[in-house]
Amino acid sequence: MIRGKDMALSLLAVGTAAVAGYVLRSERSAAHTSRSKADLGARVVGPEDIPDEATVVDASAQRLGEIPGARRALDRAVRNGAREEWEHITLERDGAWSVVDRIRQTLPYYDADDDSEYNGVYVQYNDRIVVLDAIGWARLEEPVA
Q1: Backbone phi, then psi, for 28, in 5-degree steps?
Q2: What is the DSSP string of the chain?
Q3: DSSP output for 17-57
Q4: pLDDT 10s digits, 131-141
Q5: pTM for this one?
Q6: pLDDT, tens digit, for every residue of 16-42?
Q7: Which of 16, 64, 114, 128 is the one with CA 20 to 30 A from 75?
């Protein structure tokens, strides 16, 4: 009978330690999750879709390469022939929101006047034109009252 109690106490101790470890790991990973996200979208357009006021950037431009996820979004749009839908790359990390600002401030961002044109950076990618744009959002720590 003593063996049964010892075994039960051992199992209880191991189970408690496992639960405590899980809770601590969950709290730690929740503390390190990103507080903001950015979604980079790219789509292929025809030369006739380039607005007269838009500046077209070459895909090899250094400033474009310094933006996380930009080249991946462009590559994906060209590879998939994305003419009807945007190809997306989502960045989840602290400071991801700043990618949106970098695209709009360091590259010639075109802000469309109407719905017939696309907002974004027009990029010459080999023999194609790709529009690159980004949106960002932040997770609120506390609900808005």
Answers
A1: -65, -45
A2: -HHHHHHHHHHHHHHHHHHHHHHHHHHHHHHTS-SEEEEEEEEEE-GGGS-TTPPEEETT-HHHHTSTTHHHHHHHHHHTT-SSS-EEEEEESTTTHHHHHHHHHHS--B--SSTTS--BEEEEETTEEEEEEEEEEE--SS---
A3: HHHHHHHHHHHHHHHTS-SEEEEEEEEEE-GGGS-TTPPEE
A4: 999 887 655 55
A5: 0.70
A6: 555 455 555 555 444 444 467 888 999
A7: 114
CA 87 to CA 11: how far, in whole Å? Answer: 51
Nearest-angstrom CA–CA distance, 121 and 42: 9
**Tokens 């007269």, located at residue:** 52
CA distance 140 to 22: 25
Whole-number Å distance between alpha carbons of 118 and 122: 9
Q: What is the phi/psi pair of residue 85, to 5°?
A: -130, 155
